[in-house]
Amino acid sequence: FLAATFLHSLFLPMPFLLLIFCSFATAFQEKISFKMIHTASFYNDSWVKIQNSAWLDDLQTHGWDTNSGRIIFLRPWSKGNLRKEEIKELEEFFRGFSVVMPQEIHKFASQWKFKYPFEIQVTLGCELNRGGAIVGFHQFAYQGSDLLYFQNNSWLPSAKGGTRAQDMSRLFNQNHAMKETVQRMLSDTCPRFLLSILDAGKADLQRQVKPEAWLSTGSNPGPDRQMLVCHVSGFHPKPIWVKWMRGEQVQQGTQQSDILPNADGTWYLQVFLDVEATETSGLYCRVRHSSLGGQDILLYLEHHQGSVGWIILAVMVSLVLLTALAFWLRKRCLFPHPP
């Protein structure tokens, strides 16, 4: 947090900032957040493994080289509008944070009943909401469970943090300089940097790639039942709507996998439907995505089953012809015609 003072005014002029603010509030129909994650794995009272990273929603934009203490910019636009000297100061901040935080945790580990080995997660960032407002957040967790969060210039214990969280919040709140720095980071620095990288990466972030979709069947979930699978891949941006339907009715029991990344930066999704084998008539998978211009993809199960039938028939005919050819060749070899 010590580096936040130099970050206060290093970003965009306010008129241009407001222009970008309005533009992205319209362009991104869903919430979008930027967060920095600090993870410290404490194996014993002398061995700590540090990991730092930064993310724009589910897209990692920055990494951290623990050996050199340098920020790794994972996208061409990850620097936003930062200058070289500003990047160096940020790296000094993260190096200091990665040294000071473990020392403090070691110091109070016994008092806070942290039992080795354990893991600490610190998240700091901000979120651009659909209405255009940017809200900062800062959380401190132990073993994956929230202990503290920052709100209205104060550290507050989480509801399930117990006496440990209450003791930690009292100690953290005594450091008024740190609280002011955190407040500045959340209300000024993070929003400016979020909008800065959104502007620098808008060509990549706002690109539209149409999905490809196809149907398959999974392993049968039970007697006289069938598992239908709708695959959707290669789409960007991430928000998508995929449902199994009959007529205009969404089918109950539709289950969706996590949306997973492809190597090219697009996304992949599977949507499942467990149905009675005799109740598949009229079912189809419907795909809605911003890249389709309002023209949904409709994949009808009857067409899929029909195409599978033709494939099976073609394979069977080919096998019969190959068998006949082999028999004919064998006969020619065993009983050749006389000269």
UniProtKB/TrEMBL annotation:
Question: What PROSITE patterns does its record include?
Answer: IG_LIKE
| SMART domains reported in the protein's UniProt record | IGc1
Subcellular localization(s) per the UniProt record: Cell membrane; Endosome membrane
How does the protein's chain sit in the membrane according to the entry? Single-pass type I membrane protein
Q: Does the keyword Transmembrane helix apply?
A: yes
Q: Where is the signal peptide?
A: none
SUPFAM superfamilies, sorted: Immunoglobulin, MHC antigen-recognition domain
State the Gene Ontology terms under molecular function.
Answer: endogenous lipid antigen binding; exogenous lipid antigen binding; lipopeptide binding
Question: Is the keyword Metal-binding in the record?
Answer: no
Q: Identify the keywords attached in UniProt to this record, alphabetized.
A: Endosome, Glycoprotein, Immunity, Immunoglobulin domain, Membrane, Transmembrane, Transmembrane helix
Coiled coil, from the record:
none
GO terms, biological process: antigen processing and presentation, endogenous lipid antigen via MHC class Ib; antigen processing and presentation, exogenous lipid antigen via MHC class Ib; immune response; positive regulation of T cell mediated cytotoxicity
Q: Pfam families from the xrefs?
A: C1-set (PF07654), MHC_I_3 (PF16497)
All copies of the Ig-like domain together span: 191-291
* Record InterPro entries: Ig-like_dom (IPR007110), Ig-like_dom_sf (IPR036179), Ig-like_fold (IPR013783), Ig_C1-set (IPR003597), MHC_class-I_related (IPR050208), MHC_I-like_Ag-recog (IPR011161), MHC_I-like_Ag-recog_sf (IPR037055), MHC_I/II-like_Ag-recog (IPR011162)
Ranges that cross the membrane: 6-28, 308-329
Q: Which GO terms describe its cellular component?
A: endosome membrane; external side of plasma membrane; extracellular space
Name of the featured protein:
Ig-like domain-containing protein
In its UniProt entry, the species of origin is given as Myotis lucifugus (Little brown bat)
